[in-house]
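Researcher: Predict the fold of Odorant-binding protein 8a.
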Amino acid sequence: MMRRSQIGLLSRLLLLLLVVELTPPAIPVPMRSSPQSLALLRARDQCGRELTAAQRLQLDRMQFEDAAHVRHYLHCFWSRLQLWLDETGFQAQRIVQSFGGERRLNVEQALPAINGCNAKTSSRGSGAQTVVDWCFRAFVCVLATPVGEWYKRHMSDVINGNA
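Model: Structure tokens for Odorant-binding protein 8a follow.
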């Protein structure tokens, strides 16, 4: 026969097992993305629907070759975010605001870089360049500035779920 102390111990063990069994496993809570990051991801997904897996991977790695699919993707991406207007190019002030303003970017460096690339790559008078080409050339120009380095880091964080 079992002693009372053994019965008490056995009942506590059974109770502990029930608690452990009934407790749902801890589910890691993903980091909440900012509305701006979600907008970037949505634009990326919507504009990348026509891309092959290899093309998508290339863009995710921030490799922007001069190819039709890259030019169209970039124009779609920036236009969808309403940060590119076909009449005036990149909306420098809106880009700075959308990407965190003075907290995240050196505004004194960003605004002249973006506006300078708009002006430098615009050849609206020649007619030979489409707005898609202009967007691509202006974007490549911005990538060559410190703003471009920040953009690459930020987009990598967004794609990897860290922003």
